[in-house]
Design goal:
By secondary structure, the protein is an alpha/beta fold. It has 15 helices and 14 strands. The protein folds into two domains: 203 residues, Rossmann fold (3-Layer(aba) Sandwich), CATH 3.40.50.300; 152 residues, P-loop containing nucleotide triphosphate hydrolases (Rossmann fold, 3-Layer(aba) Sandwich), CATH 3.40.50. It is globular.
Length: 372
């Protein structure tokens, strides 16, 4: 399929796609949508930033429009609140005028509003596993009528310890449901989940999933810890127009770094699991609209950051596992744009950098630390 107009969607979906500027499907959309429309289970792997959200939202909406029923008909599980909210935003855009109702079910936000949306006839729940299990245990939601369940960022959900919650949710849905699983990687735990809960799936693999996007320039600076802040300031001053997403390994490190940047006159916000949902929403909203030029984040929060136009990713601290490097770098260079990813590494971390290079099968380009 070369254009969305070739897909057998309801006219209202075609109208909404055109209105929102979607004309040509990305490779993962072109490959995953046809088997999903046919009712098959789908297991799709692709690099981050390749358009996986529409690859499951569109077939889901088409199914609900052609066979409308009352009650909760579909669940989309995501690892973080931010990602759930952004999936909901995408859903609302392409569902406009269809009458299909959707509710966000996540922790950190008032449950009364979420429950009211469910009771008012939401057919789709976009949820984090923990909050949905809480609702199930308290018998506040019924998944007996589920026709489709989507596991988005499955590898990250399992990394975050959600396997028991996911299995609890899956056991509460009919065995004849359709399952759409999207993941950046298929590690052992994901493979086990597929074997247990997915039936004869159509397999979609777009590009090397252990490699970063080719349109992202990968730089590494060997710099000691006490000079990292000065180096970051130098990069910020050298590129005064672009937005920066900066990764810290810990919550406390993110707090300290954001405070130091703000004290140096840079517009910086922070996002991590220790912040309230309102604080996280405000930081992400300000980063999107340009109020904050810099967003300091931890890996746990990073999967919810889908912001177009991020010019520069900085690995202020190395990730704990090499695979997270791919997810971090995938925040820039999205939708065909050019991006830059700079990694700060101390002399004692050379072996970790080599491990990242072996994982992504690309050598990072060494850069000289400027006089600071």
């Amino acid at each position: 399929m070369n254009t969305f107009s070739e897909f057998p969607f309801e006219p209202i979906l075609h109208t909404n796609l055109r209105r929102n500027g979607f004309s040509e499907p990305t490779p993962v959309q072109a490959a995953a949508i046809p088997p999903a429309l046919a009712g098959s289970d789908v297991v799709a792997t692709a690099q981050t930033g390749t358009g996986k959200t529409l690859a499951f939202v569109l077939p889901l909406l088409q199914s609900l429009l052609t066979n409308p029923k009352r009650g909760v008909q579909a669940v989309v599980l995501s690892p973080t609140r931010e990602l759930a909210i952004q999936i909901h935003e995408a859903f609302v855009k392409v569902a406009a005028g269809t009458g299909v109702k959707c509710a966000v079910v996540v922790g950190g936000l008032a449950e009364t509003h979420q429950l009211r949306n469910i009771r008012q006839g939401a057919q789709v729940l976009i949820a984090t596993p923990g909050r949905l299990v809480d609702f199930l245990d308290r018998r506040l939601v019924d998944l007996a009528g589920i026709r489709c369940i989507v596991l988005d960022e499955a590898d990250r959900m399992l990394d975050m310890g959600f396997q028991p919650a996911i299995r609890r949710i899956l056991s509460s849905t009919p065995g004849a449901r359709q399952t759409l699983l999207f993941s950046a990687t298929i590690e052992k735990s994901v493979a086990q989940l597929i074997e247990s809960h997915v039936r004869n799936p159509a397999r979609v693999a777009i590009g090397p999933i252990t490699k970063t996007a080719e349109n992202v320039s990968l730089h590494v600076y060997e710099v000691e810890q006490d000079r990292k802040l000065s180096l970051l300031g130098s990069l910020l001053r050298a590129d005064r127009s672009g937005s920066f997403l900066v990764f810290s390994r810990t919550k406390h490190g993110a707090d300290r770094l954001a405070q130091k940047l703000s004290g140096s006159g840079f517009r910086a916000a922070r996002i991590h699991g220790g912040r309230t949902q309102n604080q996280r929403n405000e930081a992400l909203r300000g980063f999107k609209d340009g109020s904050f030029r810099i967003l300091v984040a931890t890996d746990v929060a990073a999967r919810g950051i889908h912001v177009d136009g991020i010019g520069h990713v900085v690995n202020y601290d190395l990730p704990q596992v090499p695979e997270d490097f791919i997810h971090r770098v995938g925040r820039t260079g999205r939708a065909g744009a050019q991006g830059v990813a700079s990694t700060f590494s101390t002399s004692s971390e050379r072996s970790e950098v080599r491990r990242i290079e072996r994982t992504i099968r690309v050598k990072l380009t060494p850069r000289q630390v400027p006089a600071l």
